[in-house]
Design brief:
about 160 residues, alpha/beta, TIM Barrel, 5-stranded parallel beta sheet, globular, DHP_synth_dom, metal ion binding, magnesium
């Protein structure tokens, strides 16, 4: 449900077919996003997000593909851990401590994206350009420390500056 593709791959078969084409073209990891993070879109609920992801994850796992899931909802992240996805990509940077124990016990890599608003849906925010780097570094230090303290190995954490919105 990408803000970019206009929902072209909401159909399970189309999503799987597109993923296979991406692999043929050289992709090493398929990043699945079942709910757009665009500030101007309608929120997709947890049940619907999992419903969209489940058959695609299953099919791609059966093909032996490396899978990343882009989600900021802890319930969906728990589902992804159960499905043994390779990466969880959180546009909010894993702000919810209730998921930390599950993340620590899993083997998946965590893409920790910088988030100006730190928690909640993406919003359009004016940012002082002179403060961007300092703010980003403070954000990453806080989130890395929280995850490592919860038992997540540092080498599993990938940083994303998240300059999208």
């Amino acid at each position: 449900d990408s803000f970019y593709d206009g929902g072209l791959y909401l159909d399970t078969d189309k999503a799987i077919e597109h993923a296979l084409h991406l692999v043929e073209d050289g992709a090493d990891v398929i990043d699945l996003g079942a709910a757009s993070s665009n500030p101007d879109t309608t929120e997709v609920g947890v049940v619907e997000e999992i419903k969209r992801l489940k058959p695609v994850i299953k099919a791609l796992k059966e093909k032996g593909l490396s899978i990343s899931v882009d989600t900021f909802k802890p319930e969906v992240q728990s589902f992804c851990i159960e499905q043994k996805v390779d990466f969880i990509n959180d546009i909010q940077g894993f702000p919810y401590p209730k998921i930390y124990s599950g993340l620590a016990k899993s083997d998946c890599k965590l893409v920790l994206m910088h988030s100006v608003q730190r928690i909640g849906a993406a919003t359009k925010v004016e940012t002082n350009p002179e403060e961007v780097f300092t703010s980003m570094m403070e954000f990453f230090k806080e989130r890395i420390a929280a995850l490592v303290e919860a038992g997540v190995r540092r080498e599993r954490i990938i940083l994303d500056p998240g300059m999208g919105f």
